[in-house]
Design goal:
This protein is mainly α and 185 residues long. The protein has five helices and no strands. 32% of the residues are buried. About 3% of the residues have low confidence. It comes from Leucobacter rhizosphaerae. One of its GO terms (molecular function) is aspartic-type endopeptidase activity.
Length: 185
Amino acid sequence: MLPDPVLLQFLAIAWGGIVSAVAVRSDVRWRRIPNRSVVPACVAVPLLLALSARANAPGDPPGFPEALAMALGAGAGLAGVHLALALLGGLGGGDVKLALLLGTLLGHSGGAMAAAWGGALAWLGAGLAALTSRCVRRARARAPCSAVPAAPPPSTVSEGLPFAPFLVAGSWAVIVVTLTAEHAR
């Protein structure tokens, strides 16, 4: 007998949330997303979601293969887009693995459209942050010398914008909205 499907779904979502928080903290501080947290979650979360779908309807539920395929397909789709962008430069492998995890959760909560919205919100947020950062740098460069703050000390962290905070924020905004709408029905 399988455990309660709601408990399994809760465990999958909670695990994804914890890994998301770890990824954001790590990406902001060191521009690295740790494999030791993301990779196990990329395996365990789909398994928990599959067990949840299976336990929800004993026997051979007609929607089980489709629901599992939707979650895995959305995860693979979002990861595939990020992999293509990583190969072009600018994204790291950790962002791709995080996209796989979050895409699977997005696919489970709302299908392929949820994954598309999560990715779109992430890129919109990152684009706005990059534009704002560029405008602030240009404004500081044009300011009088006395108003320009001293240069920050040299850092070992790359100067790029960390992407994990935007991927997590966009994805979890969609996950919360879709799960809330689903339970409101």
